[in-house]
Amino acid sequence: MSRSIFLVGPMGAGKSTIGKLLATQLRLPFADSDRVLEARTGADIPWIFDVEGEAGFRRRESEVLRELCQGPTQVVATGGGIVLDEQNRRQLRRHGLVIYLQASADQLLKRTAKNTNRPLLQVADPQRRIVELLSQRDPLYREVADIICDTDHCSPRQAVDLVIERLSQTPTPGD
After folding, report:
1. What confidence tens digit (pLDDT) does each residue in 104-161 have?
2. 49 three-class SS
3. What domains are defined for the chain?
4. Quick count: other Cβ atoms within 10 Å of Cβ 13?
5. Dihedral angle over CA of 45, 50, 54, 58, nearest 10
6. What is the DSSP string of 7-33?
7. φ, ψ dihedrals at 5, nearest 5°
8. Which has the higher per-residue pLDDT, 173 or 165?
9. Could you tell me the strand order of the sheet in which 75-77 lies?
10. Which pLDDT tens digit goes with each residue over 66-106?
């Protein structure tokens, strides 16, 4: 693999979990853009949202993506909203292979129900919020995706196997 692999998709799709397993299987380094952002700022994402708002968080998220795009070939789990910025979408397409980890709203709700580290879901009706986010972001995930993998009925290991199968069927640039 000569290009980085960027995992995109909604919160709860499995980007971090699948990304770590995929990186191990491919013998590549792994980076989680949210964890890199937290390490650089010394603050967790909910705190950044509280202090700087979503716009401040998105600016920092874009800076981290630019740095990761300049790094070594690696597997990168991105934040669910990374695709909202057109420049980010261009960076993803230009610097790597993009895999959209897709999941249904019901599955995403189950996977995120007990996680309080997701500021956008700290609302009265998290399921409605997930549906709204999916309707806004799904077209953007599809726009940047080289590969789409449905993770609804997969364990993380099965999802990795599916991603690797799809990678083997994807021509590399110049083929």
Report:
1. 888 877 866 665 555 555 666 777 888 888 999 999 999 999 999 998 888 999 999 9
2. helix
3. 4-166 (3.40.50.300)
4. 28
5. -40
6. EE--TTS-HHHHHHHHHHHHT--EEEH
7. -115, 125
8. 165
9. 30-32, 75-77, 4-8, 96-102, 147-150
10. 999 998 999 999 999 999 999 999 999 999 999 999 998 88
Any long-range contacts for 107-113 (C-beta under 8 Å, 24+ apart)?
A: 107/12, 107/151, 107/152, 108/10, 108/11, 108/12, 108/13, 108/134, 109/12, 110/12, 111/12, 111/13, 111/14, 112/11, 112/12
Cβ-contact 156, 21 below 8 angstroms: yes
- Cβ-contact 65, 88 below 8 angstroms: yes
How far apart, in whole angstroms, are the C-alpha atoms of residue 28 and residue 30? 6
AA identity, residue 174: G
For residue 139, which amino acid is it? Answer: P
Residue type, 86: E
Do 121 and 112 meet the contact criterion of CB atoms below 8 Å apart? yes
Strand partners, 7: 77, 99
What is the pTM (predicted TM-score) of this model? 0.89
